[in-house]
Amino acid sequence: MRTPLCDAFGIDYPIFAFTPSEHVAAAVSRAGGLGVLGCVRFNDAEELDRTLTWMDENTDGKPYGVDVVMPMKVPEEVKGLDVSSMIPEDHKKFVDDTLRKLGVPPLPEGEGREGVLGWLHSVARSHVDVALQHRPVLIANALGSPPVDVIEQCHAAGLKVAALAGAPKHALSHVNNGVDIIVAQGYEAGGHTGEIASMVLTPDIVDAVGPDVPVLGAGGIGSGRQIAASLALGSQGVWTGSIWLGTEEYRNLTSNQGWETAFLRATSSDTTRTRIYTGKPARLLKTKWTEAWAEDDAPEPLPMPLQNLLVADAHNRINASGDPDVISMPVGQIVGRMNEVRPVAQVMADLVAEFEATVKKLDGLAGI
After folding, report:
1. What is the 8-class DSSP label of residue 247?
2. Is the separation of the CB atoms in 64 and 136 below 8 Å?
3. Which residues does UniProt call coiled coil (predicted)?
4. Which end of the chain is more exposed for a tag (fewer CB within 10 A), N or C?
């Protein structure tokens, strides 16, 4: 399982692993892939700095990446507006009423009141500034192309820039902006995702950007067979996310038993694509929380970043309650195959072994 991206990044396998857990990201890098730490959860630049220092010291000198959430166009919030004041009272009342109906208890006084500020453009820029003081080899943006000046800043520091795309036209726009690697994010994926399934999207984007731009297949990838399929569609590697929620190392980020119960019992049809998490279409586990937002009397989700600020405290309360019937969790359709909790090293070993067995089988079918 070796492609030009392995040489470009100094990794053994072209398996890129997005995760909000530094423990998972470091373990993936140590196992030969490229762990990519999601930075959106960091409100405090000093906390991110400490976390990346830990990554520097716990990856055995192997490379890693970071992922930010940054719109290309600079929104009003960087001009001094209080965005929280733009959240309608009716939306706040709906959230409070829904939590009460679902039996979600409040948090202790003083806990969980601050929204996840990493969704704000200005905070995402600070994430890039902090990352450049450490040794990541890649900065990825979950919202497509970062601003051109940020791309140039990363290139000047010797980093590659990746951006997610849900359609060929988006991928071409990213390339024109200077993005180095395109993540073809299929409809099956957890979190932000577009309208086109991976089987169609990956070759469409590969053909659109041409042979000189590496493409990572993403969406519904959680086995060696699926990695083989993505490479067969023209990708040079895979971008994975949901499968790392089911690892032992992820428990260092959250010990919430409700999360594990929820994904271990879920099938591939137990997800829904909705704007209630961030304001942009994202795939979540289907629970009583997502069902409440689908009712006729529910308000329309607010645009990013207002929706996340609206529901941030609710998510803290839901997660703290540990109720698997209510949990709010971004996860892809691959959740139906996440049937046990394993160490990261075992997941990596299984991905590689099944890939090799699949390719050998295909070679036999081709008579090679």
Report:
1. B
2. yes
3. none
4. C
Token digits of residue 356: 């090799």
How far apart CA 176 and CA 169 sit, in angstroms, is 11
Place of tokens 């202790």: 108
Domains observed in the chain: 4-82+116-271+335-366 (3.20.20.70)
> Which residues face 17 on adjacent strands?
35, 240
Instruction: Walk across the sheet containing 191-192 and list its strands.
Output: 191-192, 282-285, 271-274
Write the DSSP symbol of residue 64.
Answer: E
Does 330 sit behind a cis peptide bond, omega within 30 degrees of 0 on the bond before it? no
Distance CA 50, CA 323 (A): 31
For 259, residues 6+ apart whose C-beta sits below 8 A from its C-beta are 245, 319, 324, 327, 329
The pLDDT tens digits for 81-99 are: 566 778 999 999 999 999 9
Q: The whole model's pTM is what?
A: 0.93
Q: Is 158 helix (H, G, I), strand (E, B) or coil?
A: coil
Q: Is the peptide bond before 20 cis (omega within 30 degrees of 0)?
A: no
Cα–Cα distance list, 307 to 113, 278, 284, 326, 344 (Å): 15, 5, 15, 18, 32
Exposed, middle or buried: residue 82 (CB in 10 Å: 0-12, 13-18, 19+)? Answer: exposed
Between CA 52 and CA 46 the distance in angstroms is 10
For 362, residues 6+ apart whose C-beta sits below 8 A from its C-beta are 228
- For the cut 90, the answer to whether the pLDDT of residue 71 exceeds it is no
**Mean per-residue pLDDT of the chain:** 92
189 and 142 Cβ atoms separated by less than 8 Å: no
Cα–Cα distances in Å, from 224 out to 4, 16, 277, 312, 358? 19, 14, 30, 35, 7
Q: Are strands 271-274 and 282-285 parallel, antiparallel or unpaired?
A: antiparallel
Looking from the CA of 303 toward its CB, the CA atoms found within 13 Å total 6
Distance CA(137)–CA(65), nearest Å, equals: 6
Is residue 213 within 8 A of residue 175, CB to CB? The reply is yes
Tokens of 230: 């993505």
